[in-house]
Amino acid sequence: MIQLRSDCLVFKTAEGAIPCSAEYVAVELMGDSAKQLDAGVLHSVAAGVLHYFRDELCKDAVSVAEFSDALARVLQGFGFEVTVDGEEVPAAGTGVTLELAITSETDLHALAAESGAAFELSFFPLLRREIHRHLREGPGVVRFTGLRPCVKQLVGAQRWCGRCRLLNDQIVDYLRNCLDEEHPRNNCALLVM
After folding, report:
1. Which contacts qualify for 32-37: CB closer than 8 Å, 24 or more apart?
2. One-letter-per-residue 3-state SS of 35-80
3. Global pTM?
């Protein structure tokens, strides 16, 4: 028996079993709506679905319907509104149509640059202001990008270090706490990349 690549599953179709990359199948199922996702998010979602089938269910072969259902559930967990060809449970051969909830986005690296020489002293108030702005817009997903370069800029580090890791965790915790304080009903997803 030939061993599958680590990023592949065997997909059962009416024509037979086809080994294929989980990320490729995710892109094909989503069609044009895959362009609305950041490449890193799409890669992580496909990897999560692959891990679920391979490691948790111990399956190397799945139907396209099983895969599209799991893909839809993961995308919903990220705060995206997902329909699977108008059905609650996908039938074999159906694709995922992705409809994004209203999304608001901030570049943390640009926010760090805006804080100037005051670094963290002015960065956190700017961050709170951005959360207020996002929540006034009423988004389904609040997305903050550029966390890693933001942290390195605030710390003044060329390479990732222990101080970077600590500040990274502080920023993520601060975002979570602000969102919980400002939006306690928690019907808004937070995505930090």
Report:
1. 33/96, 33/97, 33/98, 33/99, 34/98, 36/98, 36/100, 37/98
2. HHCCHHHHHHHHHHHHHHHHHHCCCCEEEHHHHHHHHHHHHHHCCC
3. 0.57
Amino acid in the structure at residue 34: A
Q: Which residues pair with 141 in a beta bridge?
A: 103, 189
Express each pLDDT in 94-120 by its tens digit. 555 555 555 678 899 999 999 877 777
pLDDT digits (tens, 9 = 90+) for 20-59: 888 888 888 887 777 777 777 788 888 888 888 888 888 8
CB 107 within 8 A of CB 49: no
Token pair of 132 as six digits: 């207020």
